[in-house]
Here is the input.
Amino acid sequence: MEFSDFGKRFAGEIGIGELMDDLGDALVSDPAPLMLGGGNPAHVAEVQTLFRSRMEDILSSAGEFERVIGNYDTPQGAKAFVGALADLFRAEFGWKIGPENIALTNGSQNAFFSLFNLFAGKFDGGQLKQVLLPLAPEYIGYSEVGLEPDFFRANRPEIELLDDRLFKYRVDFERLKMDNSIGAVCFSRPTNPTGNVVTDEEVSRLRQLANSQGVPLIIDNAYGTPFPNIIFSEAHPVWDENIVLCLSLSKFGLPTLRTGIVIAKEETIRVVSRMTSVLSLAPGSLGPALALDLVKSGEITRVSNDVVKPFYQQKSARAVAQLRREIRDEIPMRIHKPEGALFLWLWFEGLPISSLELYQRLKKKGVLVVSGHYFFPGMEQDDWAHKEQCIRVTYAQDDQVVEKGITIIAEEIREIFSSAKSS
Ligand SMILES: Cc1ncc(COP(=O)(O)O)c(C=O)c1O
Here is the structure.
């Protein structure tokens, strides 16, 4: 059997595939590895109680359950939910949006497939356009989404060294080349894998840059405001007709219900909805049904602020404190300033082995992390040593799991650096 070029891309090794496989295997293997690798959000008890009670309402109200599971929504997604989202965004941020500016997708991952291939790839006259990722490292899930080869362009960031073994990536505007071979600019905020929050000033420069070329600025807000609001620094959300804002119910607590939200100008929403109709007929209905009341009442914002954000912020601080304690000064470890999302991004300058080997060694010891080298889409040709010196560690799991995992990571790192020193 021979696969097409398109098929071969999925048959080979794909970072996101490997990551999701590890995640699935971890949940069923015995003993279960310490899962510091995936992007699965935590089971936040208060949020789960809210959804349980909403599910009970659906089940006990005559005909509602049957309607939710038995009727396709339109390709744009559940009308009542889309309307409630438009009201929420108008009320929260004063944006001039209506239901015509919102489409639901089966997870925001799905939205990126549609959006990236809408704005980049082959154009009239055979011209090829790329998606510019202004700040690498960037989300692993973008890597294989483009239907054309060489789909992304990314640059090395500036590295700002901070006190207390922290550092922060900043957009290097000097290196950022914008021309008519760019079809869209995209970044995640907060960023997966680093927990970075691109500053308001950087956002405004990126807006100008995208506008100067007449291309959309896609902002991946999977962890951002107003929900799930896993964001620990000051950052203001922005939207206008040149911005495509992507949100998700996953990190608020519904990852399995695959509910992505795209906010964009009407023309874009129409095409995204059409693409959904071709790829999957309609978005799933259960996520919108479970979240409808929370969005209508604005409760989703309150729960995000008062429950979800402090839950992760406390876990992040705990993991950082432990790393500082256990990885002693002589080891060149730095942590990206944790400003949001579910991850710590650790940089071991001069790491004597590759980050992939480090991942494999840790896996043998029963801890799953993600090798940093996957997170540089668009920089495949750049042999920057930094790409091989980082790992992503998720702190969303139970505190004991994270604690044990970090202890093993620290032991392994000490061992690697001390045997390199003595050899
Ligand atoms: C930055 C970022 N964007 C998008 C997604 C996709 O999320 P979903 O498809 O569950 O909405 C993820 C998932 O981890 C993510 O980390």
User: Anything to note?
Assistant: The pocket of pyridoxal-5'-phosphate is lined by residues 39, 107-109, 139, 141, 188, 192, 220, 222, 248, 250, 255, 260 (CB under 6 Å).
